[in-house]
Amino acid sequence: MPTLLQLNHFDQALAACGTPLQRSRPEILQLNIGKLCNLTCSHCHVNAGPKRKEIMAGQTVDRILGWFEQTDIPTLDLTGGTPEMIPDYRRLVKSVRSFSQARRVMTRLNATIINEPGYEWLPEFLHDHQVEIIASMPCYQPDNVNEQRGDGVFDSSILAFQKLNQLGYGSDPELRLNFVYNPNGAFLPPCQIELSADYKKALDEHFGIQFNELYCIANMPIARFASHLKNTGQLDQYNQLLRESFNPATIKGLMCRNTINVSWLGEVFDCDFNQMMKLPLAAQNEESTLHLWDIDPDTFADIPIHTGSHCFGCTAGSGSSCGGALT
After folding, report:
1. Is 324 helix (H, G, I), strand (E, B) or coil?
2. Alpha-carbon distance 110 to 83, whole Å?
3. Residue-level pLDDT at 312
4. Boundaries of domain holding 168
5. Under DSSP, is residue 104 helix (H, G, I), strand (E, B) or coil?
């Protein structure tokens, strides 16, 4: 048993507040199916971009589908990169929906891809398969969006959301359209409820856009965002802010507790952030790699969660997970 001094800073904070971090039974299978993306966003924890070659191969998709069909995990969460750019994206969604209509499929959509040549099929495909959309929309003002995600991204996103609204997204209960807010600097997200009300008012009044929920997610000080902070002399300050804002009440809602995160190679991690930092499951040794098809869902909860100082990013303030604020 490690002593308090041997624990990393995050585990020390857990020990000090007497709040253990333990898994529950898996409820979400999250696949990061590739780092290919048509954008290069400054806050991206994946370092995704147009030149990335890492995408999930068809054989890996086959093995994942075979495993997933045999489980009772209710939700598939597809992320990237831009998951819709992966050749097997449509096959993956169609297959999971064919297992059972009760299976929930979510896609973390970079909405600008809808307006790219060759992706005209996407809105109708998402509609026909009732895929829940979680779309990046870091602000309802164009300057902030374009600063974080690139010139022209705001206008392209608005056009894409209008297309989705025309199909019923944001109004039909079976077609959920959720937005994600990320700060465009070294600070924590504001109150999710209040910001959501501001978003709904502004987007409806100016663009006639309807959506369901806004998820406020803190930027993680890793990968591209960490490089940005380091280059602007803000990395130490931001890490200190996260540590000082640690909130024990967020622990029970953390995504690592009920999610199996899988890389484009089929490898299993505690969360997408650990995946990008190449931190394997705590139960693994350095000479082996645990793949999804090696996992028994009935015993997965027994595997310890691998933590690090970056975990303060999910537990600061109101907390943030793939579904937004936690308190």
Report:
1. strand
2. 9
3. 97
4. 4-315
5. strand
In-domain check, residue 262 = yes
**Does a structural domain hold residue 306?**
yes
Q: From the centroid of its chain, how far is CA 250? A: 17
Q: What is the mean pLDDT of the chain?
A: 91
Domain assignment of residue 320, yes or no: no
CB atoms within 10 A of CB 64: 24
Determine which of 98-102, 144-148, 175-179, 279-283 has the lowest per-residue pLDDT on average: 144-148
pLDDT digits (tens, 9 = 90+) for 256-300: 999 999 999 999 999 999 998 888 886 555 557 789 999 999 999
Rounded CA separation 167/126 (Å): 10
Tally helices (H) and strands (E) across the chain: 11, 8
DSSP 243: H
**Distance between CA atoms of 168 and 177, rounded to whole angstroms?**
9
Instruction: Tell me, yes or no, whether 293 lies in a domain.
Output: yes
Inter-residue contact 125 to 119 (CB < 8 Å): no
**SS3 label, residue 295:** coil
What local confidence, expressed as pLDDT, does residue 147 receive?
72
Instruction: Give the count of domains, the chain.
Output: 1
Residue type for position 10: F
Q: In what order do the strands lie in the sheet with 268-269?
A: 214-216, 177-181, 132-136, 104-109, 75-79, 28-32, 259-262, 268-269
Percentage, residues of the chain above pLDDT 70 = 94
- Range of weakest confidence among 32-46, 197-211, 310-324: 32-46
Cα gap 34→135, rounded to integer Å: 17
Q: Can you give the CATH number for the domain in which 291 is found?
A: 3.20.20
Is residue 245 within 8 Å of residue 213, measured between CB atoms?
Answer: no
**CB 318 within 8 Å of CB 247:** yes
- Nearest one of 279, 271, 268 to 322, comparing CA atoms: 271
Could you tell me which of 125, 34, 159 has the C-alpha nearest to residue 85? 34
